[in-house]
Amino acid sequence: MDNINTRGFRIPRSRTFETHHALCDEFMAAIEPLVLNTYSHSAKVRAELEAAFATEMGAKYAVAVGSGTIGLFLALRACGISAGDEVITIANSDISTTAAITNCGAQPVVADVLASDYTIDPDQVEALITPRTSAILPVDLHGHPANVKALRPIAERHNLTIVEDAALATGAQDYGRPVGAFADAAAFSLAPFKPFGSAGNGGMVVTSDEEIYRNLCLLADYGHAPRGPNQPDAYQNYIAEGYNVPLDALQAAILLIKLPYLKEWTAKRRAIGEALEAGLAGTSARTPKLRPESAPTFRSYTICVDRQLEVHQRLREAGIEAVIHYAPPITHYSVYAGLFPNADQLPITERLGREIVNLPVSPEFTDEDVDFMIETTKSILESYE
Ligand SMILES: Cc1ncc(COP(=O)(O)O)c(C=O)c1O
Q1: CA of 29 to the centre of ligand 1 (A)
Q2: Whether the domain at 16-260 and the domain at 262-382 fall into the same CATH topology
Q3: What are the backbone dihedrals phi and psi of residue 195, each rounded to the nearest 5 degrees, phi first?
Q4: Ligand 1 atom 8, closest CA
């Protein structure tokens, strides 16, 4: 097999390509009719994936879209977020999170995060609520479930919607339920480096609210109402201004084949995270501490270290494709200059931005791979003692 995606790293960010090689015949058989057939077959495959994904997530509905970014944006719009609203979120996330808010014309307001698992600190949220606040957007960072259940009573008290950014957490659970279950809507990324990724971009929004679902369908499909039984083919009735952003059916076909493996792959990611935690115990690396109810997935395994950039560079030189996600915090970027009045009041977000290094996690890793990561990280950290 050509190691086309290792980019020269002994431990690349992901070894999904190995799984894709193993499933390739099945992928090709599923893709061929889509390439040769009509649009209606595409719609059928996408609908099958939506139904299977909704079941997997314990939600009533799922809408497959072109990316996690567009999924978050549509979820906010489907929940009625619009110009002048404020949405409370975090600053140590991808730009997709805040961009989804600003693209609705709304103002992102950032709360600090928990030092333990890097997700939104529910105790910080209430103080940020104003009469303009309309939603909370927690992020399951690195695959660690945000405590959305704890945000629920706050949302109820202030009549707020919760849209969860579960882009990095497909497969994770909290309080015994799949992530997204405590939110009004949740958006997942199905891009290749995510815990449940396709061969290209993709996203999914889940909800159990029928009105949010109808809005999502409308917005993802140009804004035209579904065709009634007596209306001619290609009849169009625009009742909203929407977008043309359904998930590409070729990606849907691949994801349908992969979905039955999700539980097994999540368990493997969790086992790798646990092995890294145990192996790095006693070193100077600070590892995430998850709540007992939380059953994360690990998109990557984060360690916090004193010499972030040096450790990151040395890991890569040693053959481990470490990355730094998501640092510096979003408040630092020129595109958001002046947007966040409380940017200097996020001590934990700032500290994480200076310390975080992400080690690769991929279900295809062997015990030997994980041991190599542990030993290499240990020896780098010990060299500074
Ligand atoms: C936290 C977070 N939210 C949303 C997204 C957007 O997902 P996508 O890349 O599918 O647009 C990402 C992508 O990396 C992400 O990390």
Answers
A1: 29
A2: no
A3: -60, -30
A4: 68
